[in-house]
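Internal ticket #5521
Category: modeling
Description: The requester needs a full-assembly model to guide mutagenesis choices. All entity lines are attached below as received. Residue total reported by intake: 484.
Assigned to: D.W.
Attached entities:
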Amino acid sequence: MKTLMMTSTKHLFLVFLGCGALAISANVSAQQKADPQFEKMMKNSFRAEGIAGLDRIDQDATQKFCSDPIFASSKAGAAKAIEIQKINMATIKQPTDGKYVGDWKSGEAIAQSGRGATWTDTATTPIGGGCYNCHEIDKKEISYGNIGPSLWNYGKNRGYSQEVMTYTWNRINNSKAYNACSNMPRFAHFKLLNEKQIQDLMALLLDPQSPVNQ
Amino acid sequence: MAPVSALLKRCLISSLLIAFGQGAFAQTAADDIAKYREMIADGNPSELYEMSGEELWKKPAGPKNATLEKCDLGLGPGVVDGAAAVLPKYFKDTNRVQDLESRLMTCMDKLQGIPSQGIIDAKFGAGPKKDMDAIVAYIVTHSKGKKINVSTAHPKEKEMYAMGKRAFFFQGGPFDFSCASCHGASGKRIRLQDLPNITTQEGAALGWGYWPAYRVSSGQFWTMQQRLNDCFRQQRFPFPIYGSDVTIALSMYMAKNANGGMIQTPGLKR
């Protein structure tokens, strides 16, 4: 299991690496200090609007760590990154019904939508996965972004083993469990997508019938 | 305004249809927009805003019934030519670093007696913000072709730049996004939209040098304040207050990084 995870993780890791690694080299051994003046500026510069409350700029440990790319890419930062990944891994829940793969057609619709969670949305606006914003997925969709890696032939290339299923499930639920400062939102952690929606996205990538795997 | 923007939209849509209809998938949206820019090179719709802005600049207004013609935008009272190329900048009278919009609010307050709060609270494109948009269009048109030349010599300017840099990398919200999530690496896109890398001189000049701009998709002229506001909206952040320090700090970070680049405002954007 461990070796298999190692190889498949390595393979998949490369695929997911596109997430904007900030290669800034510097000999800095500590995370940037809290700056009261900066904090005052942030506090005074925003106001709550609709569903976007001021609590959105209260950072958690992951956000704090990733806001300092110089430290994050330092030697001491690498050790801290492992700690951050552990915190995020601990938040992931496996599917309650044991099902990893749902309906790829709904998955495609979720991947297409980049809506939701802004101050012009309401609490009931469905939140999309926004996947095509950053990833190529089904080649038929030519309007795709490239901040993340291509997911075309995702299952066809990796196979449909339980290891691949679990890894992909974890990655969609909380990408920071593998790459502390991945650019991908933590979809389950912030309740952006529910279990059913994540199962449907899983199907888009890992159902052999999905257009992604043709 | 409506018929002009409707016509422009139709032009853009048909040029996109031609591009994709021929299966030219390798062609980026940027190519199409460049083609479209060429098509209307003689008539950026921002000119309409600029014309009304010039009138507003010279027309007595507010409780003091005064014009803005003595407004000091950084190069001396009344100097409009090239003023936008040196902003944001430290101003002694307010003891603050100010961008174009916040400086104009100071002038409206001091010279005309128009309180800033009403402008801050207005909706984009409406009421006093509509007048502000026009005046901004007028000012920035008079820096077109000038080199971006922003100073960080004053300690407050230096400090603002440092805070802007920190704000650029500040992650928050339910998506964990910072400005750098989209604008921290080169060659990146959201869907087909190219994203300038603002940490580089070239990318910063592409961003800072082309805003304020006329947006074809919305048929509106957008100031940099509005551009930043919509970035934060899509970042899933709370609402940045108009003219607040975080917006000026980020502008300082962009403008200083862009130094040496060319001001192309008002730009023309998707």
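Resolution: model delivered.
Comment from assignee: Chain A has ten helices and one strand.
Ticket closed.
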